[in-house]
From TrEMBL:
SUPFAM superfamilies given in the database record: Activating enzymes of the ubiquitin-like proteins
Organism: Cristinia sonorae
GO cellular component annotations of the record: cytosol
UniProt subcellular location: Cytoplasm, Cytosol
GO MF annotation list: adenylyltransferase activity; ATP binding; metal ion binding; thiosulfate-cyanide sulfurtransferase activity; URM1 activating enzyme activity
Gene that produces this protein: UBA4
Cofactor needs: Zn(2+)
Recorded family membership: In the N-terminal section; belongs to the HesA/MoeB/ThiF family. UBA4 subfamily.
The keyword Nucleus belongs to this UniProt entry's keyword annotation: no
Protein residues bound to Zn(2+): C172, C175, C247, C250
Protein name: Needs CLA4 to survive protein 3
Rhodanese domain mapped to chain residues: 301-392
SMART domains: RHOD
InterPro entries: MOCS3/Uba4 (IPR028885), Rhodanese-like_dom (IPR001763), Rhodanese-like_dom_sf (IPR036873), ThiF/MoeB/HesA (IPR045886), ThiF_NAD_FAD-bd (IPR000594), Ubiquitin-activating_enz (IPR035985)
Pfam families assigned to the protein according to its UniProt record, in alphabetical order: Rhodanese (PF00581), ThiF (PF00899)
Length: 394
C-alpha cells in the first residue's frame, strides 16, 4: 500500500481517524477520480468538499460562464471571475483549497458525441446539472461505462439525491423516469427561484455519497433522498426497486436505446427548454401588445390607464411600476375582474418577461371586455432595458 506524504497526515487527520476510512480509505481517495458535470449551485459545494477530502483527480465539465446572478449560490465563483468559464473558475478555487490534487477543467459542452470519451477516465460521475436531456445522457453513459452516477437536483426550497447504476442491480435514471416531462414543466432556477443554501445541502450530500462509494462505506442499497427545507423533518428516504428488466438502458429485456452518440436527447425530451425571455418578446397578436417605449409615451400623455401586474405578490413586493395594481395570474384566470369589461377601460398588463401577461389578456378578453387591453412586450425586463435602467432586474 502506498503511503501519504507526511503533511497529508495532518491535513486529513480528522477523517483519517474515522472507523471505515483510516489510512486505507485516504489512500483510496487519493488514488480515485471523480468528474463533476455542472459547476453551478450543486457542483460548487460538491467540488469544494471533494477537493478538501483529498480526492486525487477531479474533473469539472461546464461550458457556461460565470454571471453575477450565479454568485448567490455558486460559492466557488466570485465577482473577479464573472465572464470566465465556470469549469476554469471552479478549478482555480478547488486548487486553492487543495494544491496537492489534480483538477481537470473541461469548458466544452457534454454531448452524445463526446460523453463516453470525457467520462470514461473517472471512477464516479456527479450529475450537478439542471436540465433533463443531460440527465438522460449522463445516466445512459454511466450504464454503458458501468460507473455509479450520483445525481442531485434542487429548486425553490426543495432538493433530491439519488445514486443510480449502483452495483449490479441498482436502477438507472430511465428505470425511474422512462418518459421525460414536457419541457414547459421543467422550470429552471431563474424561473421558479432557489435558495442557495438548499443547493449547498444537496451538493454536499453528493460529495458525501462519492466519498462513501470510493471508501466502501456505501451500503449498496439504492434509495431516493427527498429534502425540503421547510418541512419537519426535512429529510425523507424512499427505497428504490431494483433494475427493470425492460429498461431501455440497463434492462436485460426489450428494446435498447441504441448507440449513445446517435441519440437526440433534446428531441427525446420534447425539444429544447423554452426561452421564456424570447417568447415574451415575440409571439402573440401585436394588436393586443405594446412596447415599453410606447407604453411610456401613453403614460406620459396623461391618458387615464390602469397598469395590471400579474406577477406573484412576492415579486410585486420586489419592484413594480407606480400606481400599478397586483392581481396574480392564477387569481385573475380563476375569476377575471368584471370591472375591466366596460368600453371606457384602458388596461395594460405587465409581468416579468411578457408571457404571463399574454395569458392574462386572453383571460380578460374572455370576459367580453370592450375597452383597450394590451400587454407589455418583454415585460418589466424590457421596461428596465428600454425605458428605466434604474428599474430592478432579478
Amino acid at each position: 500500500m502506498s503511503q501519504l506524504r507526511l503533511e497529508d497526515y495532518r491535513r486529513y487527520g480528522r477523517q483519517l481517524i474515522l472507523d471505515g476510512i483510516g489510512l486505507p480509505g485516504q489512500v483510496k481517495l487519493q488514488s480515485s477520480s471523480v468528474v463533476v458535470v455542472g459547476a453551478g449551485g450543486l457542483g460548487c459545494p460538491a467540488i469544494q468538499y471533494l477537493a478538501a477530502a483529498g480526492v486525487g483527480t477531479i474533473g469539472i465539465i461546464d461550458h457556461d460562464v460565470v454571471e453575477l446572478s450565479n454568485l448567490q449560490r455558486q460559492i466557488l465563483h466570485t465577482e473577479e471571475t464573472i465572464g470566465v468559464h465556470k469549469a476554469i473558475s471552479a478549478a482555480l478555487s478547488a486548487q486553492r483549497i487543495n494544491p496537492n490534487i489534480k483538477v481537470e477543467p473541461i469548458s466544452s459542452a457534454l454531448l452524445p458525441e463526446n460523453a463516453l470519451e470525457l467520462l470514461k477516465p473517472y471512477d464516479v460521475i456527479l450529475d450537478c446539472t439542471d436540465n433533463v436531456p443531460t440527465r438522460y445522457l449522463l445516466s445512459d453513459t454511466a450504464v454503458a461505462l458501468g460507473t455509479p452516477l450520483v445525481s442531485g437536483a434542487a429548486q425553490k426550497f426543495d432538493g433530491q439525491l439519488c445514486v443510480y447504476n449502483l452495483g449490479k442491480d441498482g436502477p438507472c435514471y430511465r428505470c425511474l423516469f422512462p418518459r421525460p416531462p414536457a419541457p414547459e414543466l421543467t422550470g429552471s432556477c431563474e424561473e421558479v427561484g432557489i435558495l442557495g443554501a438548499v443547493t449547498g445541502v444537496i451538493g454536499n450530500l453528493q460529495a458525501l455519497e462519492a466519498i462513501k462509494l470510493i471508501t466502501g462505506l456505501n451500503d449498496g442499497k439504492a434509495s431516493l433522498l427527498i429534502y425540503s427545507a421547510l418541512s419537519s423533518p426535512p429529510f425523507r428516504s424512499i427505497r428504490l426497486r431494483s433494475r427493470k428488466p425492460t429498461c431501455a438502458a440497463c434492462g436485460s429485456e426489450g428494446n435498447k436505446v441504441g448507440t449513445i452518440s446517435s441519440i437526440d436527447y433534446i428531441t427525446f425530451c420534447g425539444g429544447p427548454r423554452p426561452d421564456w425571455e424570447a417568447r415574451g418578446l415575440g409571439g402573440g397578436n401585436l394588436d393586443t401588445r405594446i412596447s415599453a417605449l410606447d407604453l411610456k409615451a401613453v403614460l406620459d400623455s396623461g391618458v387615464k390607464a390602469r397598469i395590471l401586474d400579474v406577477r406573484s405578490r412576492t415579486e410585486f413586493g420586489i419592484c413594480h411600476l407606480p400606481d400599478s395594481i397586483n392581481i396574480p395570474l392564477n387569481e385573475l384566470t380563476a375569476k377575471p375582474p368584471s370591472e375591466y369589461a366596460d368600453e371606457s377601460s384602458v388596461v395594460y398588463v405587465v409581468c416579468r418577461l411578457g408571457n404571463d401577461s399574454q395569458l392574462a389578456v386572453d383571460a380578460l378578453r374572455g370576459t367580453a371586455v370592450q375597452g383597450i387591453v394590451k400587454d407589455l412586450i418583454g415585460g418589466l425586463r424590457a421596461w428596465a432595458k428600454d425605458v428605466d435602467p434604474s428599474f430592478p432586474v432579478y
